[in-house]
Design goal:
Residues 11-88 form the AMP-dependent synthetase/ligase domain. By secondary structure, the protein is of the alpha/beta class. The chain has a single domain (5-238), classed as Rossmann fold, CATH 3.40.50.12780. The protein is 35% helix and 22% strand. The chain has a 5-stranded mixed β-sheet. The longest helix has 19 residues, at 37-55. It is globular.
Length: 239
């Protein structure tokens, strides 16, 4: 088992960079986004480069990610971990170097002391925001200016802080245990109800460590479940 999240993600991409690794649906907006391993890797690299080259982030820095389950949230989380930036638990505000959120949570984010703040509307086709909350930069606009390959100055280590109180080795172990609890294994295509599984250990890390791909559904319409499971060749549904 991989003992850092970037290593687990790199292994997932290497299996086949061309096949869908994360497919996202939002039944409230009709949005669908399909990201192959290579495409998600590019977004992750751009985010890591934004942190390191754009903000001067260094291993040991911290980030607050106040985003719902979404493919952009995956890019932000994996980008932070690739750059050695630890993601703090979202429940208790604390000082961080960088914060990511949506405009709807800008007031909540004000309780977090942060050096840099980014907002995203999580819009279809990764469209930028038309109006930004005061004090925020647009994540989508800013991240696109950075390169789609990332080479860390120093590799992330298993004992480096990762998610909440867990280091990378602990986060990977917890994700592997959670995959076993959920019945997710290698080669599975897992449909996940985002509302029922908001923890990134469930919707992102467990499938990643298990060697599975994800169909992540926000505002899931039960009437569409059977047809979607068939069309996406789903092998496991987590509702």
């Amino acid at each position: 088992m991989e003992t850092t999240i970037p290593a687990a993600f790199a292994a997932a991409v290497r299996r086949d960079p061309t096949v869908p690794l994360l497919t996202f649906y939002d039944d409230a907006t009709g949005d669908r986004a399909e990201l192959s391993g290579a495409t998600l890797e590019n977004w992750v690299a751009k985010t890591a480069n934004l942190l390191r080259d754009g903000l001067g982030s260094a291993p040991g820095d911290t980030a607050a990610v106040l985003l719902p389950p979404h493919w952009q949230a995956a890019a932000v989380l994996l980008g932070c971990w690739s750059a050695g930036v630890a993601v703090v638990a979202p429940e208790a505000p604390r000082p961080v170097e960088v914060l990511f959120t949506t405009p709807g949570r800008a007031a909540e984010a004000a309780a977090w002391p942060a050096d840099e703040r980014y907002a995203t509307g999580l819009l279809p086709l990764a469209m930028p925001l038309r109006e930004l909350p005061g004090g925020f930069a647009d994540y989508v606009t800013e991240v696109r200016q950075h390169g789609d390959q990332f080479a860390p100055v120093q590799p992330v280590r298993p004992a480096d802080a990762a998610l909440g109180e867990r280091d990378h080795a602990g986060a990977c172990a917890a994700a592997a245990r959670r995959a076993a609890e959920l019945g997710v294994g290698p080669g599975d295509r897992v449909l996940i109800d985002a509302a029922a599984h908001p923890d990134p250990v469930d919707w992102l890390l467990a499938p990643l460590l298990a060697g599975a791909s994800v169909v992540l559904c926000a505002h899931l319409d039960p009437a569409r479940l059977a047809g979607r499971a068939d069309s996406e060749k789903v092998t496991r549904t987590l509702g």
